[in-house]
Amino acid sequence: MIRSASLNGYIELVKSLGRDPHAFLRAVGLRAKLLEDSETLIPRDAVRELLEITARATGTDDLALRLAAQRRLSNLGPISLVLREEATPRDALDTLCRYLRLVNPSMSIRVEDLESLVIIREDLLPSPGVPMRQSVELAVAIVFRMLRDLIGPHWRPLDVCFTHRPPPDAAAHRTFFGRRVKFNQEFNGLVCMADDLARSREPGDPKAAGFARKYLQAAMQDRSESVQEACRQLMLALLPGGTCTAQEIARHMRVDRRTLHRRLDAEGLSFSALLDQVRADLVQSHLRESDLPLAEVAEMLGFSRLSSFSHWFQRRFGCSASQWSKRSAVVATRKEVGAGRSSRA
Question: DSSP letters of 126-165?
Fold first, then answer.
């Protein structure tokens, strides 16, 4: 479940495109009334499917960017008061990571320092069978808008990266980000100058921020995270580096490996089964939405050799990755044809 704030501006945007937003909402089992309160929790997968079918039906490849263009820092909810009071944009980014579970529990943000650069990697837990292109672009665009609000209206990142393939025309993406956008990359996110994120900021209303911080801390305690959710987030972060082991996951969770296995067992899971499922969800997303070579996909899933990946894929899906891709393309084409007929009706 995620906040309905993820769809702020959706109804107005779709109407401006000359279409009926209520029809799209009904198609994924949502009602417009659910969007009236931005704190209402709605199904994550329904939101992702809604963005995809709307983009396809309206022929709007930059739908997510148009939604993000209407967003302000305040759309993040109470956390926005705290972010505005942080001494630097980097401090605000670290605070967002700390409370991200309250904003979007299916998303993870990793901030890496590389000499004079800062790399902001954004991962979304995959939804089996649901395309995520628009959701990913919305997530990256919102962080971009947040940083620009904190740094200044003329700020731009050095690079904007997406793992999925490019749209037929990326002009809208270049206009939105003010930079040439890179597709078929190894991560989703932004590359920024460290000095930009280190700029000092003037405090605004520390008293309001103090109340908001207490609210966030209480909310974090109330909305405890399951062991499965925590493991999934860590697996997303550790798989590309080839260090996704039970021992390493346990270390990050500050427990021993036996405790980790015991807690997963209490939720009806094993570490190996969960890792296998995360890999399966990720590889389907990569094969469906990007043109990355299989060797790179294998590496991003933590396989040291392409042959190991190929054996795992055959065992998991009963066919080769190339065969799966061809079948998926046929299914996607049929769905698009069906969606087009339905929207015209």
Answer: --TT---HHHHHHHHHHHHHHHHHHH-TT---SEEE-SSP
Distance (Å, whole) CA 290 – CA 133: 10
184: left (phi over 0), alpha (psi -120 to 50) or beta: left
Q: Is 90 helix (H, G, I), strand (E, B) or coil?
A: helix
What span, in angstroms and rounded, lies between the C-alpha atoms of 119 and 192? 6
β-partners of residue 328 are: none
- Output the six-digit token pair for 126: 């995959």
Q: Is 182 helix (H, G, I), strand (E, B) or coil?
A: strand
10 in Cβ contact with 138 (< 8 Å): no
| Separation CA 345–CA 341 (nearest Å) | 6
How are beta strands 189-193 and 159-161 bridged, if at all? antiparallel
Closest among 72, 41, 46 to 141, alpha carbons compared: 72
135 exposure class (CB count in 10 Å sphere: 0-12, 13-18, 19+): buried
Q: How many CA atoms lie within 13 A of 298 on its CB side?
A: 16
DSSP state of 187: S
CB atoms within 10 A of CB 16: 10
* pLDDT tens across the length of the chain (345 residues): 788 888 889 999 999 999 999 999 999 898 888 888 888 888 888 999 999 999 999 999 999 999 999 888 777 777 888 888 888 999 989 988 888 887 788 888 999 998 899 999 998 888 777 888 999 999 999 999 999 999 998 999 999 999 999 999 999 999 999 988 999 999 999 999 999 999 998 766 677 777 777 877 777 676 666 788 888 888 888 888 888 899 998 988 888 999 999 999 998 889 999 999 999 988 998 888 898 899 999 998 999 899 999 999 999 999 999 899 888 776 665 555 554 555 455
Sequence letter at residue 110: R
